[in-house]
Structure formats: structure tokens, C-alpha cells
Amino acid sequence: VQVSLDATAIVSTSQWTSLTNGSTLTIAGGSYSLTNLSDLDGSTLFVYNGGSLALPGLTSYTESDNAFFEATGVNSTIDLSALTTLGSLQTSWSAEAISGGTLNLSKLALINQPNALVHLDVDGSGSQVNLAALTGITGAISSTLAVTNGGMLTVSLLATLTNMNVTVSGTSLLDLSALTSATASSVVLDNGGSLKNGANVFSMPGSGTGATINVPLFPASIPVSISTTGSYSGGTTFNIAAGDTLSIGDSLAGGTYTGGTTFNVGAGATVQMSGATFTGGVTFNVAAGATVDL
What we know:
The chain is an all-beta fold. The chain has no helices and 34 strands.
């Protein structure tokens, strides 16, 4: 079943109680609160053009065929603040806020879906996904979490990540201060993306001359990759915290380090710098138990 509503629609919705099995509900403008719709299993929600959808009766959801919840565009909103439980997902489920959209999942406590791909995507200035109650995310291998181009993801209680590839880029900041366990998961910081752990916020400067760049211990010692093509010189110093697992650059581009750049690598840290170019006397001070792979 394909249902599409916009600001001009005149339709009674009070009798709607279920929309299931691969159906799609599209809101292309206007504001709708479907108070009696309590069963959405297997279906997709798509809101755009400033539309608003609230489902105050939806407390649980199960996906069966590559479903997604997406709010796209300024003032486009999906309010699923009553949703507390995800059933056993089967293939793939995406939750997305794009180009200024808002998705409210503020009471969802756990995403534990080892057999399904989970994709969380917040892209664009003003875009927001609220997962304030979420304590853990487990997806099938290759699941993703992306916060990009100024988008904001609220996960203030998130303690565990499993099988999640996390990307933060384009001036977005991701606060993982509550994270205590990261299994088969990693973070990529790209193009100005920032990662917060308590009072420490880290973003790789695009370049540096005589700078001091402190790389803090990342939450749960999650492996972090930093993409950079910048030039660092003039006595720039990198202080890499003990216990970090850090990749700077990749095989194609890893930055250029010249003119007395110094790396102080803390005890037990692992640093990989594939693709980096070193000239003019670069110094590595490597503490006990730390490794550096150039």
C-alpha cells in the first residue's frame, strides 16, 4: 500500500490502525498526527517539503524488507517519540534526517539487530536525529552511522557499539562521552568532523605551522581514522594519548610533515600513517608499548 498526503489533502485518518508489509506512508507537506496508527511493521515513512508526521500510538516496530524512516528538508519532521522497542529486523533498516529534517526517536532504548544492516544518517545543517535514550547499537557487519555536513545526532547515553562504521565529517560533532565498549567498530573523522569525549573535543586541523595538536584518548579506545591532505610544519607537535588506536591518512593521501614536526606517542598507542610524506627532520618519540607504522 502506498499512501501519500500533502497540505491540500482532506482525508479522515482516525480509523487508521495499521499500515504494514512493505507499505509506504509519504507526507509531502502539511501536519498529520495519526493517533490510532499503532502497527507499522515492515513499512517505510518518508516526510519532505516541510511536512510533519506524529505517531503517538506507535510503541514498537519490526522491519521485514529494507524499510526506512526519512525526514528530508527544512521543517520536515517525523515524531516517533513513543517508540520504545525494535523487534527482530530481517534485512535492512535506515533512520535518516537530511537537509534540515528532524527525526525524533527519543525513547528508543536499544538497537540490537545482529542479523540486519542498521544505517543511521544525519546529513546537512539543521538536520537532527534524537536518540537520547539509546544505550547500545548492534547491527550486522557493515552497518553505518554517519553524521555529516553539520548534522546533529543526540546519543548522550550510548554505551556500546557493535559492527558499526562511524563517519563524522563536514563540521559535525559527535559526542560519544558515554561509550564504554566498541566491538568491531571504528570512527572516521573527515573534512572537519569532530569527536567529543567528556571535556575533550578533537578535530584534525586542515594544516598547521608551529601548532600543538593534542589527540585525546578516544572513548572506549575505539579505533579512529583521520583523513587529511594537509601540510604540517614549523615545529608542529602531535601529542597522541596513551592507548589510542589511530590511523592518519590512507594509502593515497596522508598529509605532508616537514620542518621539525614532532610526534609524541603515548604508551600502548598504535599509530598508522599510510600515505604520509615526511621531509626535513620529523621526530617520533614513542613510549613503551606503543607502535608506529609508516
